[in-house]
Amino acid sequence: MVERIHGMDEVAGSNPVSSTLRGHMTTEGQSGSAAGTLAAACPSAVGARAELEIASALARAGWEVYLPFFAPHSRVDLVIDHGEGLKRVQCKKARLVKNLVAFLTCSNTSRIRKDYRDDVDLFGVYSPELNQVYLVPIEDTPMQRCFLRLAPARNGQRRGIRFAADYLVRRADPGSRPERPA
C-alpha cells in the first residue's frame, strides 16, 4: 500500500529514513557518548541528513521527488520532476565560509577526483548553518568546488558571480507550479 503524505509517497509499514540516518538520529542525542560523536562525524550520516533536507525542501516547493531504490551508491541521490522531464540530482552538504555557501562539485574517493558531468543534471545543496536548500544546475558550477554568494562583492563585481538567492528552493504557494532551476 502506498500513501501520499505532503508530496511524498510512503509504503505502509516502511520507514522513509535511511538506515544510516536512523543510526545517526538514535545516537545524536547521546551527549558525550562515543556513539554520538561517531555518528556526527560519519560521512554517510552527514550525506543522509543532507539528502533528507533537500528532498523535503523540494517536496514542500511542489516538486515530485523520487529516491533511487536499487542504486543506493550511485552518483544520483534523487530524481525530481517539474513537469518537463526527470532531472538527476547529486546532494551536497555546504559549508558557510564568510559570505559564501561552499560545496564540492566532485567526488574524492581514494584520492581520485571525479566530477559529476554526464552523471547528474543538478546539485541539491543543503546549508545546515542557514537551514536553506539550493538547486544549482551543473552547467553553472566549476569542476571541483562552487561558491554561492550571500551578499554582493565589496568591489562591486557582478560578472562570474553566483548569488545564492538565484538558486534558493522556496516553498510553493498552494496551486502554483514549482520554480524551475535556471
Give a short synopsis of this structure.
With 182 residues, this protein is of the alpha+beta class. It has three helices and twelve strands.
Structure description:
By secondary structure, the protein is an alpha+beta fold. The chain has one domain (2-166): Trna Endonuclease, Chain: A, domain 1, CATH 3.40.1350.10. The chain has three helices and twelve strands. Strands 3-4-5-10-11 form a five-stranded mixed beta sheet, with helices on one face. It has a three-stranded antiparallel beta sheet with strand order 6-7-12, with no helix packed on it. Strand 10 (122-127) and strand 11 (132-137) form a beta hairpin. Helix 1 (19-28) packs across helix 2 and helix 1 (19-28) crosses helix 3. It is globular and about 50 Å long.
Mean pLDDT across all residues, rounded?
Answer: 78
Largest β sheet strand count, sense and barrel closure: 5 strands, mixed
The structure class reads alpha+beta
Query: What is the helical fraction, as a range of percent?
Result: 10-25%
Distance between the termini: 36 Å
CATH class: Alpha Beta
How many structural domains?
A: 1
Q: What Rg do the Cα atoms give?
A: 17 Å
At CATH level 2, the architecture is: 3-Layer(aba) Sandwich
The amount of beta strand, in percent, is 25-35%
The CATH topology turns out to be Trna Endonuclease, Chain: A, domain 1
Shape: globular
Uncertain segments are: 1-39
- State the helix count: 3
Which features does this protein show?
alpha+beta; globular; disordered N terminus; 3 helices; 182 residues; five-stranded mixed sheet; Trna Endonuclease, Chain: A, domain 1; 12 strands; three-stranded antiparallel sheet
